[in-house]
Amino acid sequence: MKGALAFAALFFLCLASGAAHAGQPILIEFFGNSYKCAANNTVEREVEELLATYPDAILINCRVENSERIPDKEAFGRPFCNEGRIGYFQSMGLFSMATPMVIINGRYDANNTKIETAIKAALSMDHVKRIEVSRAEGGLNISVPQDAGKRGELYLYTYASFEKSDEALAQGQGANRPKAALRFGDEGVFTGNKPLRPIVRREKIMDWRGGAVEMTYPTKPEAFPDYAGAALGYVVVLHEAGLFSAVAAAGELTASPILYSGLGEAPLPPATEPVLPFKVLPEAPQRPPS
Prior knowledge:
The structure is a single chain. It is globular, with a radius of gyration of 19 Å. It starts with a helix and ends in a 10-residue tail after the last strand. The protein is built from 5 helices and 15 strands. By secondary structure, it is α+β, with helices and mostly antiparallel strands. The strands form 4 sheets. Strands 5-14-13-8-11 form a 5-stranded mixed beta sheet, with no helix packed on it. Strands 2-1-3-4 form a 4-stranded mixed beta sheet, with helices on both faces. It has one domain.
């Protein structure tokens, strides 16, 4: 209730353009599930378009696991995504626990059809700071700006990216997210489009006490190796009062686009088995245009 009323009030205050707030991060948290849910793909495509419109926007695409009563397994589903969906429903006093659910800056329920309105509200009303994230040997360099008198919790999200480079696309490699070739054996089959940057891991880095933070955080690459054409990206989020609360700062280290060979072949899988709930098979090479 509180979240819905606040959003309704902000709807009439969101007249500022994204260009006027260039450089200010916006965190989009998307809780989706592809099981019998056509709206999931529709909203995900809208979010993808908004990421191009608002280049400072950051996405956390959290895939909700199906209940045990449903035999179909959700690709990239994670229990912490179910926790996030329930957590925002409770902390924001929402009318319903929708799927898909879209939350902006931990403050605004985008209600699926009002995502850009919520983004404009965030740009007008919030002052989210930028966390700088860069690669380091064995981990990530993370720089959090000082904000005296504040407290919070710092989290790291790891996502898998299947997006192809411009060069690969020019070679006729198809769309950024082609049809998946994922099988789960007796647990079911997933044949839909690969999700846009699905989250595969969430870690709490530290409790924050308002001071500037300069640290190198290990990324544990053995848990999520690059395999079968997937690359890894990272999102760092500082919540003001723990998970499912307002976002104070955010930053992202994007995954490198995948460059396929001229024959359309994906890189070979690694020698070690990836620690994920399924194995991703390389796509068959596409025929060159005749």
